[in-house]
Amino acid sequence: MPPIRTVALAFAATLTALGAAAPVSAAPAAAVSAAGASSAGETDPGRLAHGVTLSHFSYSGASGELLTVDLTDPRVRVDLLHPADVGSREQVSSMVARQGAVAGVNADFFNIEESQHPGVTPTGSSDGPEVTGSRPLKAAVPDAQRFGPAMAPGTSTRDVIGVGVDGRARLGTLTLAGTVAAGRSQYPVAGLNQYALPQNSIGVFTAAWGTVSRERAVCGSDAKRADACTQDAEEVLVRHGRVAAISDTPGAGAIAAGDTVLVGRETGADELRGLAVGQHVSVRYRLTGPGVPFRFAVGAAPILRDGAVMPGVDAKTAATRTGAGISANGHRLYLVTVDGAAEAGNGLTLAQLASLLASFGASDGVNLDGGGSTTCAAKLPGSDAVSLVNQLPDGASERAVANGIGIFSR
After folding, report:
1. What is the DSSP letter of 210?
2. Torsional sign, CA 157, 194, 162, 374
3. Residue 42 confidence (pLDDT) above 70
4. Domains of the chain
5. Residue whose C-alpha is closest to residue 106's, from 67, 71, 150
6. Which of 129, 279, 367, 380 has the highest local Cβ count within 10 Å?
7. Where in the numbering of this chain does the Phosphodiester glycosidase domain appear (predicted)?
8. How far is 301 from 198, CA to CA, in rounded Å?
9. Residues 389 and 336 sit within 8 Å (Cβ to Cβ)
10. pLDDT per residue over 288-343, tens digit each?
11. Is the dihedral of CA 160, 352, 371, 6 positive or negative?
12. pLDDT tops 50 at residue 257
């Protein structure tokens, strides 16, 4: 793995040397007025690879980094940055280096702590869906169980940003559909490799989950993340299409390739108690959504639609931010990090972040995990090393996160 180094505030001067400063295109009037933001300024971009540029910007008293991706370039692709396991965390710089990306940013909010459930191990798993190479890794937790700020009305943990099999970026929703069939009985699947299951449901865990305990899946409720863990749970191991083991508590440890673990809570647990060791069981699931199927997708919170800030998006609280936007035709992807050091300003509100994305040319945009999670890592021109190019909050080190958006170029 190539070495990882940190680029501090001098990064802005490095990019400026690549070309004279130039103004970015103006945001649509509706979007700017909704956020009350000032116009943005951007250094001429430095090319990282075919179809990928990196530049530094200033906007409404804040500053940060912009990755622009031309998805019409056949040498470029965008995919999920992810740790070895769904239930684990890794630094963005490490994922960029390990997966061979040119650059990347952090993505979804995740199960970072469990102070509300003492003794329960945080899983590190993300709130929303994950798809890589058209393969679903996980589905979304219930809305009330998510980590992160309040979402805009009409949005949910099922919302994603991604790239379809047609090569165009877009926003969408991904809903889990599946069944557990045993004899004449058939039960719906309501979870896939996720840290929280809906009440009265059955969830599926695969080898992709990893070794972390599945206990968190039966904690909280459909109304409140802090609600207690239920004792009414059941776990079933399915191997070669038959029930191999049954337990009355969710377990931990690696799941063998090809095996499936079913975890039920409340009525879901009752349904699993009807199974017997040796019984034939069929488990099927998929993520479904309208439009072209996603080749890559990750959970995200929509804040910009058709060039305008969405109603209900917060316009009061400024913070360090990570965001992503797409052009109206889906041909361009914009990945933004807003610096969090004191000398870089106080960050942006979500409404300002939406307007910033619009100013770069985005029609639709999303908020990603911010604060100490905000990270932009890249291989700068002339170097094979992975550099941190955003300014981390004062005194902070790079945080391990659940996933990211990676840019790959050949």
Report:
1. -
2. positive
3. no
4. 4-109+148-168+293-409 (no CATH), 175-288 (2.60.120)
5. 67
6. 129
7. 237-408
8. 20
9. no
10. 999 999 999 999 999 999 999 999 999 999 999 999 999 999 999 999 999 965 54
11. positive
12. yes
The CA–CA distances, whole Å, from 340 to 104, 174, 180, 333, 393 equal: 18, 32, 46, 23, 5
Q: Which of 235, 251, 230 is nearest to 180 (CA)?
A: 235
Could you tell me the strand order of the sheet in which 376-378 lies?
Answer: 4-6, 386-388, 376-378, 103-106, 404-409, 76-81
Q: Which amino acid is at 133?
A: G
Pairing of strands 202-205, 191-192: parallel
| Tokens matching residue 247 | 């337990």
Q: Whose CA is closest to 34, among 231, 232, 305?
A: 305
Type of residue at 175: T
The whole-model pTM stands at 0.90
Amino acid present at 18: L
pLDDT recorded at residue 17: 29
Among residues 326, 298, 335, 294, which one has the least CA distance to residue 166? 294
How many residues belong to the chain?
Answer: 410
Beta carbons of 54 and 328 less than 8 angstroms apart: no
Q: How far apart are CA 277 and CA 294, in angstroms?
A: 37
Check if the beta carbon of residue 287 is closer than 8 Å to that of residue 176: yes
DSSP state of 110: B
